[in-house]
From TrEMBL, chain A:
Family: Belongs to the binding-protein-dependent transport system permease family.
Gene3D superfamilies in the record: MetI-like
Major location (coarse): membrane
ABC transmembrane type-1 domain: residues covered: 85-302
A biological process from GO: transmembrane transport
Coiled-coil annotated spans: none
Keyword Signal: no
Native species: Nocardiopsis composta
Keywords: Cell membrane, Membrane, Transmembrane, Transmembrane helix, Transport
Annotated membrane topology: Multi-pass membrane protein
Any one Gene Ontology cellular component term annotated for this protein: plasma membrane
The name this protein goes by in its record: N,N'-diacetylchitobiose transport system permease protein
Cellular location(s): Cell membrane
Transmembrane segments: 24-43, 84-109, 121-143, 175-199, 220-242, 281-303
Length: 313, 278
């Protein structure tokens, strides 16, 4: 890096050539690691999904065979795939809706609390948010343990004896609700804190003016606050959709890998089980491609929304 | 006045409910084993003990897993922050073709469902292990590599805002004073964006620390190279769960994240924190 001071003033020549190369020198580490660990695997994912790639092919006992769309055809004609897709959409949808309703309601509540109560609420929320998915799931399993968990004990103690020894993960709906409650607990804080900041950013005068014009609280919430909160709402909605759609850890741990007979499988867990439990890597990759495409659609919607808000790139 | 008290009471109740699972986690980690096995539902304990912590750390080798997790996180934080800082410099202090395209790519890369990449990454690491064992399956190197890559897009996105905020005039002044562009970047720019570097390091740390899926996929048989989440999972045994141990392990795993969360809490509302939860 020997050339001092001068290049700034010297037109053309080697200095400007170097100037053109410089950004790429800075980009090399990031591009190398992203290329090797993100772009290349993405390409491989799509490639493998077109092959018959199972345990014999992995060990080399049988040759690799290009089968085109056979994996996709097998998936689309498998009723279990459709069930898993439906599970994913309903589960993620319920989580997103629940998170936003709870987070939004608590954000509004937070604006009316005394400062010290608000701090207590935010600290508790921060704790829930910070809890790793693995430990959160472990705690949930303990709280809802059939015999030793405090939830069943309290319910049984209240006279609801059918809850003594009751398993919360036995039926499909109950297991999904249990997982959803954990997801809700650890993801509402993001919505609450973001929306709270959004509400605080609305100028007091605007609401005062609406009130002077005789608008009711409900009317102010609907016609004044909600439109002004739209940017924050868009972000939390789409972020929530993206996380809840991708959930793996909570389902895997709390339903022990997808529930009894796979009743609680969602797309990511399904792909994992197909690949690593039954050795059907081609099929698993096809599920991965479908998940990625679905999420890409959501991401594009997110980018469009950002652009409409005038976010600069 | 009465209404205020009512809302405050409601808020306080909700705060307690939200904090309850964490409270129960800490409480159960401190309860004596006998009380837990008898299903003692008391929301307090008169005989707190550190036995559970001692058990997981000494008997179950939790200390080793803790060190493994720390090692992976430390390498990922350093490597990803380095890559991201360099990239952020390129994307903000230079005008070149493809600049905007690259920024959009970074934004999209941040949203790639990395969970879907487990299968190709598994085979990539298997092949890599044949060349360099330390970077292959069953070694921590594989986790360091993938998590560095996963952390880079968000880190670039965060840092590019910080780097862009440093005025152009500063660079010109440094150049007039005889500083080459590398000197400017390392001696002037880097210290100026230190707060951003800290924030994005913390996000990378949390993302890596919490990873369950890749640790589970890559570390198949090497018990000694497991990280915390998998070690915690291995405590679960049908019908004879050592809940005290599981909760003590959970506490140990949660504390670092909690501390870092308190550090970055001001930045959480800007939406960046969003990318952390997976």
């Amino acid at each position: 890096m020997g050339i001092p001071a001068l290049p700034l003033r010297r037109p053309g020549g080697t200095a400007s050539g170097r100037r053109r190369l410089e950004p790429w020198m800075y980009l090399v580490p990031a591009l190398a690691v992203l290329g090797a660990m993100l772009v290349y695997p993405l390409y491989q994912l799509v490639l493998v999904s077109f092959f018959d790639y199972r345990q014999p092919q992995v060990t080399g006992a049988e040759p690799l065979r290009f089968t085109g769309l056979a994996n996709y055809r097998a998936l689309l004609s498998d009723p279990q795939f459709w069930e898993v897709l439906l599970n994913t959409v309903v589960f993620a949808g319920a989580c997103v809706l629940g998170t936003i309703l709870l987070g939004g309601a608590l954000a509004v509540l937070a604006t009316r609390l005394s400062p010290w109560v608000r701090t207590a609420l935010f600290l508790a929320a921060l704790g829930a948010w910070a809890t790793p998915a693995v430990t959160g799931s472990a705690v949930w399993l303990f709280l809802f343990d059939p015999t030793l968990g405090p939830v069943n004990q309290v319910l049984a103690g209240l006279g609801l004896t059918e809850f003594a020894g009751h398993s919360w993960t036995y039926t499909k709906t109950s297991a999904f609700v249990l997982v959803a409650s954990q997801v809700l607990w650890c993801s509402f804080p993001f919505v609450m804190i973001t929306l709270y900041a959004g509400i605080r950013a609305i100028p007091e005068e605007v609401i005062e003016a609406a009130r002077l014009d005789g608008a009711s609280t409900a009317r102010i919430a609907r016609s004044v606050m909600l439109p002004m909160l739209r940017p924050a709402m868009t972000i939390v909605t789409i972020q929530s959709i993206i996380w809840d759609f991708k959930i793996f850890t909570q389902i895997y741990i709390m339903t022990n890998g997808g529930g009894i007979a796979g009743q609680n499988l969602v797309l990511n867990v399904y792909a994992y089980q197909k690949a690593f439990a039954s050795g059907q890597y081609g099929l698993g990759s096809a599920i991965g491609v479908i998940t990625t495409l679905l999420l890409l659609l959501i991401t594009l919607a997110y980018l469009r929304a950002l652009r409409r808000q005038g976010e600069v790139l | 006045m009465l209404r205020r008290i009512r809302t405050d009471a409601a808020g306080l109740l909700i705060a307690l409910a939200v904090a309850f699972p964490l409270y129960w986690m800490v409480l159960s980690a401190l309860k004596p084993r006998a009380a837990l096995e008898a299903g003692d539902p008391a929301p307090f304990t008169l005989t707190p003990t550190l036995d559970s912590f001692r058990r997981v750390l000494l008997v179950d080798g939790f200390g080793q897993y803790l060190l493994n997790s720390v090692a992976v996180a430390a390498v990922v934080v350093t490597a990803s922050t380095f890559c991201a800082f360099c990239a952020a410099v390129a994307l903000t202090r230079y005008r070149f073709r493809l600049r905007t395209t690259l920024l959009v790519v970074v934004l999209i890369a941040q949203m790639v469902p990395v969970e879907a990449l487990t299968i190709p990454l598994f085979f990539l690491m298997r092949n890599m292990g044949q060349a360099v064992p330390q970077l292959g399956l069953n070694h921590l190197g594989s986790l360091m590599l993938v998590h560095t890559a996963f952390a880079v897009p968000l880190a670039i996105w965060m840092l590019h805002g910080f780097v862009a905020a440093v005025p152009k005039e500063l660079e010109e002044a440094a150049q007039l004073d005889g500083a080459g562009s590398l000197t400017f970047v390392t001696r002037v720019l880097f210290p100026l964006v230190a707060p951003g570097v800290v924030a994005c390091s913390i996000f990378s740390f949390i993302m890596t620390w919490n990873d369950f899926l890749f640790a589970k996929t890559f570390i198949i048989s090497a018990q000694e190279n497991q990280t915390l989440p998998i070690a915690l999972l291995s405590f679960f045994k049908p019908d004879e769960n050592d809940w005290g141990g599981i909760m003590a392990g959970s506490v140990l795993m949660t504390i670092p994240v909690l501390v870092f969360f308190l550090f970055v809490q001001r930045r959480l509302a800007s939406g960046l924190g969003g990318a952390v939860k997976g």
